[in-house]
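Sample entry (416 residues):
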Amino acid sequence: MVIVHWHDVGRHLGAYGAASAPSPVVDRLAGDGIRFDRAYATAPLCSPSRGSIFTGLHPQAHGLLGLAHHGWRYADGVRTLPVLLAPHGWRTALAGMQHESTDARTLGFGELLAQDCGSRCDPVADAAAAWLRDAARRTTPFLLSVGFNEVHRPYDEYPPDDPAAVDVPPYLPDNPWTRADLAAFQGAIRRADAATGRVLDTLDVTGLADDTWVIVTTDHGIAFPRAKSTLYDTGIGVALVMRPPRTWPAARAATERLYSHVDLVPTVLDALGLPVPGGLHGVSHAPLLHGRDVPPPRDAVFAGKTYHDVYDPMRCIRTDRHALIRSFEERPVLTLPLDVAASPTARGYGSEWLRHRPPVELYDLADDPSEEHDRADDPALASVRDDLVERLTRWQLDTADPLLDGPVPRPAPRDG
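Predicted structure, serialized as tokens:
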């Protein structure tokens, strides 16, 4: 199994409708696999969302309610995917990026590769390819996690695309600032996509491709205003493409089923016929991968934000039809993370984002997919709002969310 995870790209890829995004490798993989069109992160920032990918738990349970380099760590007893696979004879390795710990040795991988290159995609892809060539000479099942720092800001390492040719998402102002920023962003996408291609090409030339499960995903939305660090679809919506082993009878197509990143661990273990630990928050989508026609296991996904650069506690629920966001402190509409606040797009964004954020926001996604018209005070949706608030509170109780007890303190220092 190979899991490739990109940084800060959300769904800004050709396969997801971003026509100008230069992502032919991921687009081809989507055509040869399953493209999840409604996959969601559990948080719109790096450490909490990645922690959920590799544990099957929401951040309030795995412990990463903020960024690892700000002192957040996994809670005691939390087991990651490589830890769960190792007793069953799996060889595990991490190449490049992780953001769950300041010490990658604590994450349970048997081998660590390309840890001294800033997780730049080119050396990470080279290290991953070399490791796969070695794996092809063995019969041991393996998990290789391949993490790219791209496409995190800044984007100045790569030649930009033509600003006149980029597609500007509808939630961003179409002006020279935004276009230049998107052009640089897409230059980084082009390089990360090519690096992904080198990993996939290695599977082909070594003969591993037919028997290797490939997963490509992203941690959260793009580093632009109203995306990263928000609980709108633009902040928690992620790309997810799975290409199961070619002997598996999964239909190669797009799916509209709701999927949360907490579903990855139970899906992987269940699909491989391995025991799924109790207490995980995710659900298994393994029947889809094995070609069985069963109902989707979810009717809602949940996400939250507690700390990013500052304390900004929010939680949300998203169903097929509606999205509800609840804020637990008074804040402006957007609390921009530092990298976004310093971006060219933010300079040309105006001051609209400084408006007061309401305590509850409700969006009818069928009529308003870009979440521009808050319906929280609409009497016609009062029963929907009340039901979603109740479901969100129940989820917080079920996951022992500390936010229910009041403001969440910053992590206490630990020895070691």
